[in-house]
Amino acid sequence: MRSIKMKNHLVTLLMLLIVGSLSAQPLTKHWVQFKDKKGTPFTADKPEAFLSKKAIERRKKQNIKITEQDLPVNPEYIQAIEVLGGVVYTTSKWFNAATVHANDDVLAKIKALPFVKDSEPVGRFYKKRPNRTREKQRDVQTEYRKTNDYYGRGRNQIEQLNGDLLHRMGFDGTGMTVAVLDGGFSNADIMPFFDSSPIHTNTKFSQCFTSSRSATCLFSKINFLTFH
Question: Does pTM top 0.90 for this prediction?
């Protein structure tokens, strides 16, 4: 009798595990594109509602018209996706799309919405890295011999890019904002070459100044071109 009860308990437990595994669908990211921007509360004749003052001034200076493409994704579309259980990570006003995290059931409901044009999975790339057992060393030179040259140690760079010519023409980067999306600004926060450069970093990336040096090399060129 006892053995029969044990078997019943085991069968019940097994069924619960099977049902649980079937219902717990993995969440994946998808690029969801919308058909239009109908019903949006934003309009091109009132750009101050979705663009910064600086962006509007730049558009006027360069004679770039503000069109429907510049309007944000319809917030009602985003809300509808979230009501169905989707998690919206990012939106793109120019592509009129959103990155959505959802399982297969929720994704099917999202694709059935009348304003959804299409969706496709977002690919992910993983690079195997060795486990770091200690903090990365930041043994960078911070003191250099002073020079009377206006461009200092950056003269070679500035002349390669004709930056000295741009400066003589009056272009010095005043009022310009340059976005750099790269692997990392290794040691850019402690190297003296960047002391006078207004760097605004995304604090979400804690290893910004200890990872790749790719952006440091690029930023040094931008620095010599625009901030001297």
Answer: no
